[in-house]
Amino acid sequence: VQTCALPISGAPTIASVPALGVAGRLTHAWHNRLAWDVQLGAALTQPATFTDVVTTVGGRPEMGTVTRRAITTAAQLGAELRLGARFIPTVRLGLGPQLRYRTGSDLGALPDVLPAATSIDALVSVAVGFDLRIGRRLVIGAALQLDHAQPLGDAPAHDVIGVTVRVSDFFYPRWWSPSW
Questions:
Q1: pTM (predicted TM-score)
Q2: Torsion of CA 89, 168, 85, 145, to 10 degrees
Q3: Per-residue pLDDT for 55 more than 70?
Q4: Alpha-carbon distance 26 to 15, whole Å?
Q5: 145 and 126 Cβ atoms separated by less than 8 Å
Q6: Contact present, 84 and 50 (Cβ < 8 Å)
Q7: Closest Cα partner for 93 from 148, 31, 152, 153?
Q8: Band of pLDDT at residue 114, cut at 50, 70 and 90
């Protein structure tokens, strides 16, 4: 669920809407308990509808319904604490930039009252989850994830509460193995 905010004074400013996202992560474990990662992801929200929005158009107040959605893409550097070998509770902290595009909207029958906008955000992500090792290489897991994106400009903040599901294929290169 993502929160979408509307930057019009006097308007209902926040709506929570479902979203769908996808991410890919490359992880390097320094040892069994700590892993560093790089993650790239994107998300698309369902349209958020704000009713009874009043704004000034051509010097006159106009009232109507505004609908917009957010499309995001983010890059994160993260660290994950892994507390087990087969049954693995996890805690992850990620930081990075996010690019957020908010679609424009009409106001009822008035076209293009709310223009589309793009913002760059500083993103903080925290996840608490559980992984299960199925075999030597296969691990499946789920996590509850909280993201907060603080814009670097005048856009409203953007929050996400999500459940992530992952399937991981672990491999163990012998770059650091003993030479004996």
A1: 0.82
A2: -10
A3: yes
A4: 33
A5: yes
A6: no
A7: 148
A8: confident
Choose between 44 and 137: higher pLDDT.
Answer: 44
Could you write out the DSSP letters of every residue in 121-142?
EEEEEEEEEEEEE-SSSEEEEE
* 15 DSSP 8-state letter: E
User: In degrees to the nearest 10, what's the CA dihedral of 69, 91, 163, 20?
Assistant: 40
Q: Where are the alpha helices (DSSP H) in 6-86?
A: none
Residue with tokens 């670097």: 152
Could you please report the per-residue DSSP string of 65-121?
A: EEEE-EEEEEEEEEEEEE--SSEEEEEEEEEEEEEEEE--EEETTEEEEE--EEEEE
